[in-house]
Amino acid sequence: MTKLLFIFGVSIALIFTSCSSEKTNENISDSDIEFKFEIVDSLTVDYLGMPFLCDFSPSKERVLLFNSRNTEFIITDSEGEIISQFTKEGDIPDNPGILADKPIFYDNQTVIARGLKGVFAYDFTGENIWKISTEENPDLWLGRLSERSMYLLSPSKYFTIINYDDLAVNPSNDSLYENHQILKIMNKESRKSKPVISLETFGRFLDGKGYPAISMLPTIHKRENKLLVSYKRDKLIYLYEWENLSFHLKDTFSLTVSPFYLDEPKERESFKDNSSFIILEKIHQGKIKGAWLLDNDLILVQYNIGIKESERLKPKIEKTGMNELTNTNQNEMPPDQFQLFRNGKKYGEPLEARLAFSHVEYVKDNAIWFKKDNEALNIEDDYAVFYKAKLVEKR
After folding, report:
1. pLDDT-derived band of residue 378, with 50, 70 and 90 as boundaries?
2. Residue 356 lies in a domain
3. Count of domains in the chain?
């Protein structure tokens, strides 16, 4: 996996740079340490399209990619050579339907995907070898192919999925906040599931205000028996442990960054006449895009501070073509930031993504995989390229 394109052979500092000025090495506290992302490897796949990097097999010999545009699963070896690809598009019995998020490896020979019709397992030829049928409400479904919520647990017959069951309740109804549990534990053998992890009483969603149900969908990352949970519009990050076949809260910490622009929440009654699950939030708010468990008790958080509500530009729609209308008054979001935390406190200076090359595809131990975004870089490429990076201290 060493096929780095020559235009990216230069230092990763051209892509990710520290937000602060250089400091001397004298009397530097933990919060003043400067880090950078350093590319240590890459994966280049001869595939025309924009697939997601989803998972590595337990043996590390196989890589799973998924193209949401044609529901195609692509399996490569560790060098990026395609060894299998199959699609589940169209009206076929083993089509899982719109996927909730990224598919994963169940073992070294099997991939699993969770869609509207349930959880489907396939071998590398695309044959459906087992499934767990579920009844899902299509009105409550949101495909989040850039995120992952399926993780294998111990014992391996258990795995996690996002829970949509209670999100049909109107946001004006207290029962939404009191009853919703964010995940389900699936049991492959019994084909049954168990909801887990209620909204925490001290969290943002239980402050008495109203929130769109869609905002309660979490982003999660599992490492060994620990599970890190974050929400896009909540500055708290939650750490759980898997024990006795359930998750138990062990710690929380706050994303102590300023500014971080969140709009004032509405009263619950204001949602009374809105029955839709997908109640759109104002997209220019601050947003936690993910949080990941690294080695040495470090946690990496990716976020965007957003734009202050009073400074957001109002849309201005103008005719820009014969049959084309365009908003010519676009808000330009600030670059994403990355921040390390240790023991609930900032560890090091924040890192700023200088290019739109900042989507984290996969994290394992200290390896952080990014996808090269051809569209953001304004280039055309016949290959799907992913970069493996690690955080190193700047010298």
Report:
1. low
2. yes
3. 1
